């Protein structure tokens, strides 16, 4: 995810330099930033699709920079930013299952924990398992 952040900063920085820059660099930089939040919030196939979209956005940014007129430094910075975003997107597609996910800590496991006789713990355990803890109590 660091590559996505660095790529986004590079695209934004390149858009601030004096050259005939394509207007799409800032939106692509913002897409990469939003992609970081999206990667944390998603999992599975959605995360892989988002990684592919980010890789395509990085390719678009690099292509726009190569095709534009202007100095070498601004175009080079934009190409480097695009390639960082491509690399980040490809790594996400490849290692999607290994990345942390928002709220994964709170998912109920398949293993049923043993009851220890503590009524409060039993109530919380039932909630974690998705059951109504008041069911069967009077």
Automatic annotation (TrEMBL):
Keywords: Membrane, Transmembrane, Transmembrane helix. The keyword Ribonucleoprotein does not apply. This is Tryptophan-associated transmembrane protein. InterPro entries: Trp_biosyn_TM_oprn/chp. The lineage of its organism: Bacteria, Bacillati, Actinomycetota, Actinomycetes, Pseudonocardiales. The chain crosses the membrane at residues 26-46, 53-72, 78-97. Pfam families: Trp_oprn_chp (PF09534). Residues 128-138 have a biased composition (Basic and acidic residues). Residues 108-138 are annotated as: Disordered. The keyword Membrane applies.
